Here is the input.
Amino acid sequence: MILIISFMILCMLGVPIAFVLGLVTLIYVLTTGNFNSFETLPTMMFNEMQNFGFVAIPLFVLLGEIMNRGGITSRLIHFAYVIFGGLRGGLAYVNLSANMFLASIVVTANAQTAIVSRIIVPEMQKQGYSKEFSAVLTTSSFIIGPLIPPSLSLLIFGVIAGVSVSQLFLAGILPGVIFAIGFGILIYLYAKKKNLPRTNRTPLRDAVHSLFSILPALVVPLLVIVGITSGALRVTESAAVAVLLASLIGRFFYKEIRVKDIPDILIRTVISTSVVSFMFATANMFNWALQMNNIPKKVTDFFLSIADNTFVFLLLLNVLLLITGIFLKGIGGIIVLTPILTPIAVQYGVDPVHLGIIIVINLTMSLMFPPVGSVLFIASRRTGLSIERLTFKLIPFLILSFGILLIITYLPWVTAFLPNVLGLK
Here is the structure.
């Protein structure tokens, strides 16, 4: 009980999740008098980092930093404008597609929301979109990001759960497309209701120029996906090759990465990687404390006692993830919950790949739930709108998101389709 109480209190106080996991473990040791554990806890933290799959994490973080510094962000957004700018509600489609494109180069959903809010939302307001709609579209669209490969969230789940990362990358594509189509329909209805004007279509010559300008940037994530799914490259190898290619493109093709930028890129990579690595280390201690209290077995017994079939289990799983995701944000939630939930899901016959997609969607959606949704706060701060106004305007997107989540949850073929077609299952 002391584990749960201390965990909840520290989370509500806003303590970073990595410190929460370590402090809760320390509190458990001190209150139980198991002082001999102090000799083994450092070893637990170190051993957790011996998994070779973790090498891919700093490489993907470095890849994102290089592509972002190399001028890829602005070119991706401009290319989206070339494609969708001439449609009614074109800038809203640009917002949506930019979130999909940025998923391959921005590590966190918070950073992704901040970039889109800063660049696209002001322009949407100039063209007649309400500030509320612009903000909630940005807030909702970030759900798509962690589903589009290369996804750091799916990579971390795959490493922890021992699931094929190539299958996870492919499994996330179709759910991401479904979310994009759903949000696209809402954009169409809004644009028609508000009778938003059409903007001038980009001349063919400019469109072709924009396409050739962005092709090198698109090759990098494509290389990762094809390399992994074809079996030609392992995850770590594909990340290393992508880093090299992105560096050459940013330095010699776009000419925006300078030698003096390299130290800053590496420092930012080290900081981001250290945060994730520290979470892994403290999570291993926390999982030890859970095992000592028999929490995983109690959670399994709880599900088995009230869920006598897979349908009920999946429903309870979604509710659990949405609630716990408010406190265990994003990657932290994946690190903590994956070792607990994966064995339970397997007992109910749920494919671990399918489970990974469900976990990532739920934990990402939780980031926009009031009153503590971090992405909601970012959108509020960037636009000057209150959390209450944003929450009210967010309702249609939340309803749609819940509906799509249920479709993905209860139709496993949505996640299994591409892996099956490409013979990875």
Summary: Residues 119 and 192 are 24 Å apart (CA to CA). DSSP finds 21 helices and no strands in the chain.
